[in-house]
Sequence to fold (380 residues):
Amino acid sequence: MNKQLLYPLLVLAGGAILALLLATNKPTVESETLQPMITTVRVIKVEPKTEYLTVSSQGSVQPRTQSTLIPEVSGRVTWISPSLVGGGSFKRGDVLLKIDKADYQSSVERSQAVVQRTEVEHSFAGDEQKRLEKLFKKNLASQSQLDEARRNARVAAANLMEGRANLKQAQRDLGRTELTAPFDGLVRNEQVDLGQFVSRGTSIGVIYATDFVEVRLPVAASQLAFTGLPTNTRGQIPPDIQPPVTLTADIGNTKQIWEAVLVRAEAEIDEQSRMLYGVARLPSMRNEESFPIPVGLFVQAEIRGRKVENLMQLPRSAIRDGDQVLVVDSENRLHFRNVRILRLQHDDVLISEGLQAGELVCISPLQAVVAGMLVNPIIE
Fold:
């Protein structure tokens, strides 16, 4: 046989044998059932709780009572109390300043002299009237003489009344040469020096009481309902419904806390800020060991509002589409649930309706959610 023909035939025969072997020894394919991918989610088991709603605000501490020192008489300053300086402390009734009283002493003495003279004239006019009335009854005095005596008596009485009024005025002016403190307090500032001439009605300083201080707190109109106060509350708040207020401030490396109460609400909403201002009040000094709250300090405030029961608290990440949450049922399937949001509070949200105690709420940020999908819940 020709070798050129033999080689191709051998190759073809080998290929056929190889193909037969592959066909008779092909691998078997085993079928497997595909298991669905179950998404693992974090869930919270909600439990109802009772909570006081709070309203946050801030403001500066101001004295409850502040007065401007204004002399009621004019004169040269002859004495100034050592307490009448910025930050000076004084007690009620302490003399803060004295004005030269020589002129006012002279005025008192002149008024006393006038009173004495008019008393004599009044006594004489009264006796003269009585004498002429007796003579008139005996036809020994004319009607005109009696009328003149009566007029003189009335004029003398009026002069005596005027003299006594002038004496009281002079005595009051003499007493006003000493400015006394109307309350226990501190001096905010003063603008007077020894020997200076001060005029009546001119401000010489500002003082304030240290019994109570106040903080003016702005409250947004949307937050008023959380305070628990009636919507028509204006002016003084009745003591039995005054909300507690917690004030805090950082002084140095220490956080100081003071307890106050909201005592009144202002009459109108501010047109620029759209805020209603409430006023919190507290004693300036709680006790000897506590840190007094200084006037002018900027503080943060938490107003304790109304008490609400059966609230569910969730993180904001649990809310979807504004007012929905994802609830995991007993079969580990997701369902959408509409809820009623009472308020957003920092990083949490308070739910008042739509959830039951013990239910599991998904808080994982799922992108695609299908109602009824199976999940693997992990309780936090």
Remarks:
- The first helix runs from residue 3 to 24.
- The chain has a mean pLDDT of 86.
- The radius of gyration is 47 Å.
- The first strand starts at residue 39 and ends at 45.
